Amino acid sequence: MNLATQILLKNALDCIAKNKLDESEELLKRALSSAPNNHDILRFMSVVAALKAEYARALDLIN
Prior knowledge:
The chain is mostly helical. It has a single domain (3-62), classed as Alpha Horseshoe (Serine Threonine Protein Phosphatase 5, Tetratricopeptide repeat), CATH 1.25.40. 79% of the residues lie in helices and 0% in strands. The protein has helices at 3-17, 21-34, 39-51, 55-62. Helix 1 packs antiparallel against helix 2 (21-34), helix 2 (21-34) packs antiparallel against helix 3 (39-51) and helix 3 runs antiparallel to helix 4 (55-62).
């Protein structure tokens, strides 16, 4: 994972901590476009989906 992707991931995690879920999801999508199939990014996208009560989507992201 390159530095720009790492920064996106860190910023997304900060947004999750502040309950800014839509912003976090956008940052995670950008990170995923730079690092497709990155398991950490997909896991955090699943967390965001679960926090948004999108449980089926959360499961799809980790399967």
